[in-house]
Amino acid sequence: MAKVIAVGGPKGGVGKTTVALNIATNAARLAGMRVVLADADPNRSSMDAALAAGEGMPIDVAEGLDHERLAELHRSRRYDLVVVDLPGARESGALTALLQGHERKAAVDALVMPTRPKLMDIRPFRRVLDEEVTPIGVPVLVVLVRVDYRQTRQAEERRAEIEEWGYPVAKTATRALDAHDDALERRVTLMDMPRGGQRSSTRAAEREYRMMSADVLEFVGLDAAKLREQSEGEQ
Question: What pLDDT, on the 0 to 100 scale, is given for residue 188?
Answer without folding.
Answer: 86
